[in-house]
Design brief:
alpha/beta, five-stranded parallel β-sheet, binds iron/sulfur cluster
Length: 469
């Protein structure tokens, strides 16, 4: 009898199953645990109270990203609380024997940027991190979960998690993306179509010609926002692009060990004709640059569209739409293009990589930041910053009137001094447009690709980047 066809999710799940639990969940071994300064202190404190050591320090890596200022990272940090959190992480990492990428390491950055660029993230792995956007690592064909603080404690203590196996939805994106349309536009379109809760209970497997043609950095953007569509995780099957990306990375295997690993990675991909719990298809060739106009990432419009009218929405959704319009100060039926902005933010674990900065710089070369707009470029890691500087991108941005900052989460979540003020509107390459997300309780966020953010910065309003490329 032929062996049953298995998805990557099945293969990775089965390979990491320690045992099935009476609750119906699986005790799953976690290959890589990434930690940062915000969700780990309490977990370490709980471990100390229980008198437990970190079970696999060599499988745990730490960085500092959320609280780090982006103007000066001189120690001690200007904010005493941020310095205290960094010192606490340094102490916990040292006690446990965990590798910490601190500001002096030259390898520090946003946790979901450094894992891939250092070669820590590899296909066929299970990965956990106390941050919602851990789904990012699925770009390599890993099964990666964002977890809460008590689960961070569990992984530190046991290297395992109790997890329910999600169902699997295959999302095929056909055709070819037009110029000026990016991975960010693809994922915004997917979330818009399926809804912010459409993925609850599912893992997303992305595929089809558009995904196959994407670089690894584009796949990272795509998988990053799986969680915004409600999915537990999202992944792309590993292929030769994945293997090429990993070759020579600091923590990737070397020599013969690399070739052995590559054979395992290729085998982790879903078998052909595997059966999925659900399938969805999108025509990538029809996508245009997208912008969110509301208060969740599902409320987006193509740049050449008008905002929805309340009467067009099903009755059950009208109140939600009215709330979004009231908060954002936008009017139903108006075009999204032309919406004035106050701040432009290029960065985050969604779009703070070198390819993002290159695309934004192409646009920045065409003009200067509009009067009255504050524009920030924040590389996702120290390595991204070095590469950008080597290519002269920092000078391109500065010459256009952008501020060039040091690496960190910055204004994505604003747990550092980079914050919106009052009702400012921010064109942002980050991943969440929730009320107050960028540091002001009344601040407003419009999500878009980094190139679209650069275009908005220069024109002072939401603009179709295709006019500027
Ligand atoms: S950039 Fe934003 S979403 Fe990503 S890890 Fe930092 S705070 Fe979280």
């Amino acid at each position: 009898m032929p062996a049953p066809r298995r998805s990557l999710l099945d293969k990775v799940w089965d390979a990491h199953t320690v045992r099935e639990l009476p609750s119906g969940q699986t005790q799953l071994f976690i290959g890589l645990h990434l930690i940062h300064e915000v969700t780990s202190p309490q977990a370490f404190a709980m471990l100390r109270e229980l008198g437990l050591p970190v079970r696999f320090p060599s499988r745990t890596f730490a960085t500092v990203d959320h609280i780090i200022p982006t103007d000066s990272q001189q120690r001690p940090l200007a904010d005493a609380l941020a310095e205290e959190m960094l010192v606490a992480l340094e102490r916990s990492a040292e006690e446990a024997g965990i590798t910490l990428f601190d500001p002096s390491s030259g390898r520090r950055g946003i946790v979901h940027v450094i894992g891939p660029e250092l070669g820590l993230t590899q296909p066929g792995m299970t990965i956990a991190c106390g941050d919602s956007h851990t789904s990012t690592h699925g770009a390599f064909g890993a099964v990666a979960f964002g977890i809460g603080t008590s689960q961070v404690r569990d992984v530190l203590a046991t290297q395992c998690l109790a997890m329910a196996r999600p169902k699997l939805r295959r999302i095929d994106v056909s055709g070819e993306l037009q110029r000026g349309v990016y991975a960010k536009d693809v994922i915004l379109a997917i979330i818009r179509q399926l809804g912010v809760k459409g993925g609850v209970g599912y893992a997303y497997e992305y595929g089809g010609p558009v995904i196959d043609a994407m670089t690894i950095e584009e796949r990272l953007t795509l998988c990053n926002m799986s969680i915004e569509g409600g999915a537990r995780c999202g992944y792309v099957n590993p292929d030769e692009a994945t293997i090429d990306y990993l070759r020579g990375r600091d923590f990737a295997p070397r020599g013969e060990a690399f070739e052995r690993a590559a054979a395992y990675w290729r085998g982790a991909a879903s078998d052909p004709d595997v059966s999925y719990d659900d399938r969805v298809e999108l025509d990538g060739g029809r996508l245009a640059p997208s912008v969110t106009w509301g208060i969740n990432p599902g409320q987006s419009a193509a740049i050449d569209e008008r905002l929805p009218r309340l009467s067009d929405a099903p009755r059950g959704q009208q109140a939600q739409l009215a709330e979004a319009f009231a908060y954002m100060g936008l009017r139903p039926g108006e075009p999204v293009a032309g919406t004035p902005i106050d701040v432009a933010f290029i960065g985050s674990c969604t779009n703070g990589r070198i390819s993002d900065l290159r695309e934004a710089a192409r646009v920045a070369r065409s003009g200067r930041v509009a009067a009255g707009v504050k524009a920030l470029v924040v590389p996702g890691s120290q390595a991204v910053a070095r590469q950008a500087q080597a290519e002269g991108l920092d000078e391109v941005f500065r010459a256009a009137g952008f501020e060039w900052r040091e690496a960190g989460c910055s204004m994505c979540l604003a747990m550092n001094p980079d914050k919106l003020v009052g009702r400012q509107v921010c064109a942002s390459s980050s991943n969440r447009n929730f009320k107050g997300r960028q540091g002001s309780p009344t601040g407003r966020t419009l999500l878009m690709s980094p190139a679209m953010v650069a275009a908005a910065a220069i024109r002072g309003k939401v603009t179709d980047v295709r006019e500027m490329l």
